[in-house]
Amino acid sequence: MTIDSSAVATDAEPLRDLPVVVTGGASGLGAAVAGRLLADGAAVTVLDRRAPRGDVAAVEVDLADGRATEEAVTQVAEQGDGLWAVVTCAGVDVPGRLEDVDAEVWERTVTVNLLGTAAVVRAALPWLRQSQGRVVTVASTLGHRAVSDATAYCASKFGVVGFTRALTAELRGEVGVTMLTPGGMQTGFFDEREERYKPPADLELCDPAQVADAVAFALTRPKGCEVRELVVTPSNESSWP
């Protein structure tokens, strides 16, 4: 089908009925993005290992399984009205020195964060080209700056930065591509870490809803206008620039 998105920027509900896939939408930034896009009228489907809260369409899938991820994206597109956008929020991290992090845990971080992102976009491309839709990838400030005890996370997010910039060049004029670089956020991302890897209790972090606003902004630019890259961080973010 052909999705008419010509009125996206001026419509009272700017994303009304446009089909959007959000990965990692059961929690954290993904949940905030899914909620914001639903409020803007989008037809959101979440891809996650567990079902999201509330009345949100979802497909349960492990983003570490590339073929299952591609099948899930195809299922959403074929059973619905195609796809207009994908937002790849799913991300994991287990910090530690390289020799101290279990190899399977290290590799899963790279697989979910980088290869899972690529699998979602790859599967979505036929429909995104047809709808002249949008892709929003989620990098990190640690995709631009390397720190100790984060080799897997930095490798994966540096990969997302390179992947997204190359994708932007590859899809120019066909599909809009935005890379979102968030800093620290008030989510459960840090909950299961050792205390030494948790942010200080008094550290200012962004509300993920505020970061989700940036995603909505990127998706609601008028046709012919694209936001290539966005950085959203707390005012005291130490990892940017």
What does the model show?
- This protein is α/β, with parallel strands linked by helices and 241 residues long.
- The protein has a single domain (19-232), classed as NAD(P)-binding Rossmann-like Domain (Rossmann fold).
- Helices cover 36% and strands 15% of the residues.
- The chain has 5 helices and 7 strands.
- The chain has helices spanning 28-39, 66-79, 103-131, 151-170, 208-219, and strands spanning 19-23, 43-48, 57-60, 85-88, 134-138, 176-182, 229-232.
- The protein has a 7-stranded parallel sheet with strand order 3-2-1-4-5-6-7, sandwiched between helices.
- The termini are far apart.
Give a summary of the structure in a few sentences:
By secondary structure, the protein is an alpha/beta fold. It has helices spanning about 30-40, 65-80, 105-130, 150-170, 210-220; strands spanning about 20-25, 45-50, 55-60, 85-90, 135-140, 175-180, 230.
Quaternary state of this entry equals single chain
Q: What share of the residues lie within helices?
A: 25-40%
The CATH superfamily is NAD(P)-binding Rossmann-like Domain
Measured by DSSP, the beta-strand proportion falls in 5-15%
**SSE string:** EHEEHEHEHEHE
Strand order of the largest sheet: 3-2-1-4-5-6-7
CATH hierarchy, class: Alpha Beta
What number is the mean pLDDT? 93
- The domain count comes to 1
Largest sheet: 7 strands, parallel
The stretches of 5 or more residues where confidence is low (pLDDT under 50) are 6-10
What keywords describe this structure?
single chain; 241 residues; alpha/beta; Rossmann fold; 7 strands; globular
